[in-house]
């Protein structure tokens, strides 16, 4: 597997709210690890957007092409620089329904257009499915750094300080995702109450009780 450079990891998994000068595009990047339940050597790789195919779709196609044994269970962990868009979220949910012998976990460094309702629906679709999306924290950043980055050339930054910085920034992003999840819970509760209020009037409920 071709490894990421330390610079690529630092720039693309950067989870600051805004990019400092000199500005650069934060691209979609997906690192995956597939581990058979029988203890065999994990398979690792990383993918990025290519032409009209998002990294998530390329990941799905990659897994499909492996010819995995459907009688065996696999643990699959993905580290993404951006959370999936609504279209990719639906594709991932449909994919795991067919490949139910895979236990897929998704961790994102940043939330993609999280303030837009349509993109929030994509996140909620994943969170309510068998493919929950979570925000990367120190354990995930550390695992990604150790297993997907080339360490032969010393980085221009202190890795420990970089990982601590990423973890610190991730706390606000985790709270953001929790607020999105809670908004869905509130909507469900309000809709349930509205349904009760709009339900058929029973004789007991129509009785006037004066005080």
From TrEMBL:
Catalytic reaction annotation: a 2'-deoxycytidine in single-stranded DNA + H2O + H(+) = a 2'-deoxyuridine in single-stranded DNA + NH4(+)
Pfam families: APOBEC3
Cofactor or coenzyme needed: Zn(2+)
Keyword Zinc annotated: yes
Gene Ontology CC entries for this record: nucleus; P-body
Transmembrane segments: none
Identification of the protein by name: single-stranded DNA cytosine deaminase
């Amino acid at each position: 597997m071709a490894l990421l450079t330390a610079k690529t990891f630092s720039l693309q998994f950067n989870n600051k709210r805004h990019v400092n000068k000199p500005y650069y595009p934060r691209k979609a990047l997906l690192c995956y690890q597939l581990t058979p339940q029988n203890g065999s050597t994990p398979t690792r790789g990383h993918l990025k957007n290519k032409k009209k195919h998002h990294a998530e779709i390329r990941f799905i196609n990659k897994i499909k092409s492996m010819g995995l044994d459907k009688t065996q269970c696999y643990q699959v962990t993905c580290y993404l620089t951006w959370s999936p868009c609504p279209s990719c979220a639906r594709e991932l949910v449909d994919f795991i329904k067919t490949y139910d012998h895979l236990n897929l976990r998704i961790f994102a460094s940043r939330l993609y257009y999280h303030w837009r309702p349509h993109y929030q629906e994509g996140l909620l679709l994943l969170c309510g499915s068998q493919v929950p999306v979570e925000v990367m924290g120190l354990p995930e950043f550390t695992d990604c750094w150790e297993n997907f980055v080339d360490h032969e050339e010393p980085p221009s930054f202190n890795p420990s300080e970089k990982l601590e910085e990423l973890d610190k920034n991730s706390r606000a992003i985790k709270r953001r995702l929790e607020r999105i999840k809670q908004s869905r819970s509130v909507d469900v509760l309000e809709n349930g109450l509205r349904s009760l209020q709009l339900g058929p009037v029973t004789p007991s409920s129509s009785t006037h009780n004066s005080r």
